[in-house]
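Researcher: Re-running this chain for the archive, since the previous output was lost when a drive failed. Same request as before.
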Amino acid sequence: MKRYSDPYLAGVGIGLVLLTAYALAGRGLGASGAFSSVLAGTFDDWVVLELAGVAAGGLVSARLSGRLRRAIERGPQLTASGRMFAAIGGGAVMGFGAKLARGCTSGQALTGGALLAAGSWIFIATCFAAGYAAAPVVRRLWR
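Model: Regenerated structure tokens:
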């Protein structure tokens, strides 16, 4: 297995993609809008293509790094069905929260952060704080 991509190079890449999105589409990045467009039957929204590109890019990246395989990543304390329940449940809660907030975490962090929106920076700090607070509990499932 190869190493993961350099995070600094990936950060510069996502910044360039964000800049290109502003230049060509007039708005930033985000994922929740694509799901809304698909559910509404309007596949012509550019964020649908953005999300398809994210999936295709992840597939290509996994293939190039030798990490492309079918597996359920889980710790020894968690069953495969428990892991799938947690993943699907967490995704549903995140999607519901994105609809309530009228935007997803990627749009809030990337786009709002790039625009220096105070609410976005508070959101990012809160996400990191919540992640650090939850880490000891979640870590036990992976040991």
